[in-house]
Amino acid sequence: PLPAGGLHGAFVFSTEARADIVAVDASVALARDGVMAFLDADSLDKAGFTNDVGGGEPLFAPGKVAYHGQIVGMVCASSYAAARTAAAVVKVTYANAEAPIMSFDDAEAAGSYFDLSPEESTAAAGDAAAAIAGAAVTVEGVAEVGGQAHFHMETQNATASPSEGGGISLVCCTQGPAFTQETVAKALNRSPACVDVRVRRVGGAYGAKISRNAAISCAAALAAETLGRPCRVELEQRDNMLALGSRRPHRCKYTLGLDVDGTLLGVDLDTTMMQGWFPDSSFGTPLDVIGSYDSAYRCANWRFKGRVARTNRPANTYCRAPGYLPAMLLLEVALDHAARSLGVAPEALRARNWYKSGDVSPRGQTMPTCTIDKCWSLLMDKVGGFEACRAAVDGFNATSRFIKRGLTVVPMRYTMAWEGGIHISLVSIQADGKLLLQHSGTEVGQGINTIAAQVAALELGVDVDDVSVGPTRTGAAACPGTTGTGGSITTEQVGSAVRNACQQLAARLAPYLAAQPTFAAAASAARDDGVDMQARGRFHGGKSTLGPFEYASYGAALLEVELDVLSGTARPLRAECVIDVGMALNPKLVSGQVQGGFMMGLGYVMGSESIDYAASGENLTAGTWEYKPPLAIDAPEVMNVTLLPDAPCATGFLR
Fold first, then answer.
1. Overall pTM surpassing 0.85 (yes/no)
2. Could you give the CA distance from residue 302 to residue 299 in angstroms, rounded to a whole number?
3. Mean per-residue pLDDT pooled into runs of 10, the chain (655 residues)
């Protein structure tokens, strides 16, 4: 809750996509009841603050706007309603408006691209050009996948309060507390030691709260510092979608060379990723699709070339399975094209070319235990065989004129990169023998706190109900240098840090556990002897001996859909997923995550989740009236998730 006397901040958004700001008139807004202040680029400059939220992106547009919906300023008022109504009457005058760069074609015509090094934008294995030239069958085309809104149930928000000693206490919904702390400190021109960031949990994130919360947190902190009162900034869903970007769209020009039996001989991929005007300050490669362009398929000869288009859109950012999802979809489109050209079933073409145990990827990743074959085989057993499913679909279509059904099955290979990841845990044994655990990850609905508690209980031999998990704080476990929560790896890395701390405690308690009847009694005796009852665990991911990734998660999925050919309405009927997650510590939690991820992907490829912009640069699909994520009615009538049994992973955590 907002502390007593707290203020609310509401943003003023630009209504032009590419223009100069001539004047900003907030006089009418400031005259309204309850309005305390208006902040913009000029006021930050006069106060000696830094107008930067990371990566060179300004908090408030400094004399020029680069996209429709860019933040121009913020009204601070005594209530949420007062702040929003006042922000609506701030008048911004523009001049020298130019046609914005909004599409892949616009970027190509303008030559508008970010500068990338060859290491960041190109990759190759073998000689793709020669292999394609000598292939019996060649296919080429263009595939494109669009953006996707993160559509959090909890929109971006932050509450900042002045704290003792001139610091700022910040409660926000970031996935990267340490990054947010550093960014806010830079904006305030203060030491990060003066900024305490606290996260209890995040109500939906999907990557957008790694870096895109920084503007919200900086705005709240600057207002609190300027006015000496707490300030909360909370976006409505429309504003969230208008100003803070989406999943990154991609376009790929592909050329495939194949043998007559469908074996891939050479693959050439020329891929463009669409970014906004600013590069986004998320950690990782600026062209993340480069890490996944081969998806689940082996080929001796690859060529990948990538570019990042600079457009007059908000900075796009990570969204669930970034890099991998667009790479997989683009390559699957190309393989479907190849299957049609060869006159073979796409499933047969996939089976001929997917990775096997012992294969090495074009990026040098060795796969000692690739389980795509096992996942596919188990999936076929569960559905009664693909040919039977296909026959049933064909039989239905033969007797139905206007309702038709379709069927597809695809493999999956999702790689996990651990190198450079740093996470911390603090485990304390309390006076009654119960545990208090803190860690540097953030709970975003993935169950990280549940897994962390299970690991602690397992290592120390206590009941999981005796483990409490505290909020994530930069003043505790989420110290400088810790990485944000993302990439489907944080739960494992935090689990490793928790295990490390618990092993230290177990070693200290060993003589007491041998002499006492219960853990609580042993802890009490150890405490009486002055034993340190807190331990700090640390995980630091090193370079894998297998290549750039620690391991991969494999899987296979079948989807049956129904299409009304008169209306164009499609609905999923049946989804069957088999996925290799190693030896899951909490199978029900993992199955729920698979179901949620599947539905988000289904909404992306099948639902009404396209993000459309007008030629003026305005987002036409910002809000629930225009943008439709999948609802319960859009879920498959039958949806089953099976975790591949007996599939330990030698390089994963506890599996």
1. yes
2. 7
3. 94 98 98 98 97 94 97 98 98 98 98 95 97 98 95 95 95 96 96 96 93 96 98 96 93 98 98 94 76 97 97 95 95 98 96 97 96 98 96 98 97 95 97 97 96 98 97 90 92 97 98 97 97 98 95 97 95 97 93 94 85 94 90 93 94 83
